[in-house]
Records
---
Amino acid sequence: MILSGPEILAETRAGRIHIDDFDPERLEPNSYGFRLADDILRYEQDVIDCFEAPTPEHLKMGPEGMVLEPGRFYLGGTMEAMGSPHYAATLYACRSASTLGIWIQFSAPLGHSGAVFPWTLEMKVAHPVRVYPGMVIGKLAFWSMQGDPTGYDGKYTGSTSAVASRLSLDVRVPD
Ligand SMILES: O=c1ccn([C@H]2C[C@H](O)[C@@H](COP(=O)(O)OP(=O)(O)OP(=O)(O)O)O2)c(=O)[nH]1
């Protein structure tokens, strides 16, 4: 079941959900509204090889923000470290950002129980859009699980900001 806003508040206060920093003002009926961090990553290679570590360009937004261009793919980050050992989580855009033509998530919305860190956003825009650090851009929902939780221990454990793909760390399937 999805947690209500009051339940997210109660579980955060009980230390069972981690949202840092946490502002009760950003609680929503079934989610918590997170903000865009100031770091943006952009792949510069003409061709990305899944089995080679990508070398993204790291951009830092100032208070004036940054214009995202259509036809480019960006990685953004959440200002907040978020997650829970006791709940799974799913990430969504805010309708208000989405209806401006800003997409922050395409195909990897699931957060495992035990994954607690700033989330990486898969960002594209429909037309040039200026985004700003600190703007509320998406929401995280928390879900109770059936069965015992197992802690996440994957390639992104310990992330402190937006992280480029680490697919190249996976064992390559033999020919
Ligand atoms: O859009 C997303 C989706 C998930 N996550 C976080 C939460 C999730 O628990 C973690 C790992 O995601 P996933 O398990 O999908 O990564 P993977 O590529 O399968 O790598 P690994 O098996 O090492 O986890 O990254 C994000 O930061 N952004």
---
Amino acid sequence: MGGREQFHGLGSMYCRGAAAVILTYDVTSRQSLRELEERFLTLTDTAQPDCIFAVVGNKSDLTDDCVGTDETQGPVPASPAPRASKQVFKEDAINLYKQLLKYKMLDEKDFPVAEKMCFETSAKTGYNVDLLFETIFELVIAGIVKKPVKSPDTVELEQSTDSKSRTSPCCT
Ligand SMILES: Nc1nc2c(ncn2[C@@H]2O[C@H](COP(=O)(O)OP(=O)(O)OP(=O)(O)O)[C@@H](O)[C@H]2O)c(=O)[nH]1
């Protein structure tokens, strides 16, 4: 989700009808996580009710502990970029994810566990980027497969009764 000042007004548009939302902060900036909490939770109001959420800490290549293994890509080399201290930890992201589900009044047990949906990535080195998108795609596709297919010929009886009652005052 875009964090820049000039895009603030467009926030709810990003999420309208979304099947998945990726909330991104910068692991070297506590403020970036705070902004997600303060401004972005409400923007998810326009997403689909069964929307999948991921909380992503980007720029992990800038921190001292970024050298590790990527589940899909193997060892990740250290970046030559200057080191920065890590200001946001995985537990902070997990708390934000839980807070988001609470805000949306969603039951944690109907959604993937927070640990699965919080990632640390580097757009620069590609660290965990594939894993993030593969995880989201799998969950979104599984959700689509689970949804009952509605035939276009189906007439919803409840809906037609409702629309009849709505039109009746003009037919007296
Ligand atoms: N080292 C590093 N730099 C990154 C990474 N992702 C983005 N950047 C750099 O961060 C700056 C901002 O990136 P943008 O893509 O404009 O993202 P933004 O949402 O505007 O991010 P911020 O300005 O950091 O709030 C650019 O200079 C990018 O090159 C990353 O994973 N690692």
---
Amino acid sequence: MRWHEVTVHTTEEAIEMITNFIHELGAGGVSIEESGTLNKQRDTSLGQWYELPLNDIPEGRAVIKGYFSDTTEMDSIMESLKRSVEQLADYDIDTGSPTYELKEVDDEDWANAWKQYFKPLRISERLTIKPTWEDYQPTPEELIIELDPGMAFGTGTHATTSLCLRTLEKVIQGGEDVIDVGTGSGVLAIAASKLGAKHVLAVDLDPVAVSSATENARLNGLESNITVKLSDLLGVLRESEAEGSEASLGVKIPVQVVVANILAEIILLFVKDVYDVLAPGGTYVVSGIIKSKQDDVEKGLAEAGFTVTECHEDQDWVVIIARKL
Ligand SMILES: C[S@@+](CC[C@H](N)C(=O)[O-])C[C@H]1O[C@@H](n2cnc3c(N)ncnc32)[C@H](O)[C@@H]1O
């Protein structure tokens, strides 16, 4: 099958928003490539480090590709996309004078092209992400996350994902029930489980993410430790309570840890729901927050009753650790 490939050359800062736009316009898949230079400044405040594969994308820049079926009328798609990207300036998101390309490609080209950049990635002292198709010899202390993200978000290379992974490594002590909101490829749910969580409920609004996370949980032999559900934020909790089917969630409410790597605007929509679902003493690990939105999210967390205990940054992105005291 032939596809229309739309390429946007932009900044790392704009990745999440532009990816969302492309999905909303009906793309069958999106691929993201960020700068992979090894001399990037990294936040080491969590006392850890990680490695990135190399590519030739300049520091701070990113290349986003969206794929639309060959029956799509592309003029209006390109127009809407450009309009939405222009409007990001209103939200202080720097898109770096984006440029656009449109061409036709074969199915096989785009389904596999991104794989050359996805290599085993040591995220922290203990967590390493390994693409399923790569060979890797771990050291005895490493926990390996086998991953084939397909078209779902979450290879671990994005700053927000790695910030969450490094934070989970500190937060998970063993035996917790955990909810991962916006699980994408399931990378955070799998990490939580490998770090010792008792059970993880992983939810996502996107059916592609739900099947990717389900498959990745299986690849890691964690299908009985991770329950993946299609859900708009924590909606599945309300539905299961109404139906009396809470047991199907796998976790016992209230839980000890919630992790969410979603845009700040979405995080603010369900802060109170997270507070209600956490046990006293529970921890909320929240990322997907661009630095300019950090104050808004901290304010929302405080209003819901949380105490912010730590914040860490990487490339303009922030992870916040909040506790329900
Ligand atoms: C930035 S990705 C994070 C993926 C993965 N957790 C990671 O850390 O790499 C955000 C995910 O949130 C999902 N999402 C966005 N809005 C959502 C909503 N209202 N309810 C559930 N999931 C949502 C998206 O489909 C996407 O998979």
---
Amino acid sequence: DEMDVETIWQDGSFVDWDDATVHVLTHGLHYGTGVFEGVRCYDTQNGPAIFRWDEHLERLYQSAQPYDMEIPYTREELTTATLELLRREKLESCYIRPVAFYGYGSLGVSPGDNPVDVAIAAWPWGAYLGEEALTKGVEVMISSWRKHASSQIPTNAKTTGLYVNSLLAGEEARRNGYTEAIVLNKEGNVAEGPGENIFMIRDGEIYTPGLSESILDGITRNTVIELARDRGYTVHDRATISRGELNTADELFFTGTAAEVTPIRKVDNVEIGDGSRGPVTEELQQAFFDLIDRETSAHEEWFTYL
Ligand SMILES: Cc1[nH+]cc(COP(=O)(O)O)c(CN[C@@H](CCC(=O)O)C(=O)O)c1O
């Protein structure tokens, strides 16, 4: 295949990339009844290592819980499968996509006794929003599509079906010439990006929406919060950020496994700060990349070496 990866782990065994298929009457395909993770393996100074694998794996099982979805493998089995996949494919810097979903059986909305299928794929994946984005930042728009409330669909469960909301917002932004969207929640306050959490710096203090704002409890978000606090910053990690505050922000940036730490330089064509990556953003971005390159020995427990 085009990504030069030969195998995928599917339901307990390694299969050829082209044979990793499902039936067209798969429950998850019709009803969005799947949960997934996005995880990165980095080729660090100490060798290739998966970043915060334990937290991602834990979130996968937690995401399945609201849907009564029993993942038919233990955490150890999925860990062993993932490590073996990366070793077989000699993937040292890659993106790992575990997914669990209700499979082929009955087609009522109720999953009945449909099987829960599990697959783990990995492939090389560069900068999510483009190489320049990390240094130059991105231009975003406030989407006309709102984030669903967590009381409607649990936004802290990384559910495949949720991503139609992300697609609607992100594609509206790109259709209008922007790189990405900012999605407000139904109260009209800032939630997050379609595939990222969001941070604001104002007068030297750091703000990021809390779970009550209908967001995903991002692992990169939590990493950056810890790095910022380690550096003495005051971080308001349960903030409510109104739409109006965005214009007066000194700095904004996205965080995510795929997005890493991506500065936001304009919102709806209004410059944020001086319209380039802000100094605090740069400091935290550098701290993040030093951490994952193992320039620092801190947080060794966050690294699962191949
Ligand atoms: C809605 C959403 N919010 C926040 C985040 C950041 O969470 P974390 O990765 O734990 O820091 C992600 C990850 N988005 C994943 C999927 C991206 C995709 O296009 O697919 C990712 O970054 O892997 C989201 O999808």
